[in-house]
Design brief:
This protein has 70 residues and is mainly alpha-helical. The protein contains four helices and no strands.
């Protein structure tokens, strides 16, 4: 996803909105690994997730995921 054109064309406001959404909806589990959520700092996990592509990322954002390993 790092080289995905959709990421390159986003404005600072989009990233600020993403941060706000994360802090209000995701951080409570992902900052502590609660409910089997992968920790935000587990870069190996997030690299594997990113390698699945933006469509997979957006699907998981909308529906959530219960995968323990990607």
């Amino acid at each position: 996803i790092y080289m995905d054109q959709r990421m390159k064309n986003n404005s600072a406001q989009i990233f600020d909105l993403g941060y706000s959404v994360y802090m209000n909806s995701c951080a409570s589990c992902h900052s502590h690994g609660a409910s089997a959520a992968p920790d935000l700092m587990d870069f190996s996990y997030w690299d594997l997730s990113a390698n699945k592509g933006m469509d997979s990322i957006f699907k998981n954002l909308k529906k959530g995921t219960i995968e323990s390993k990607i």
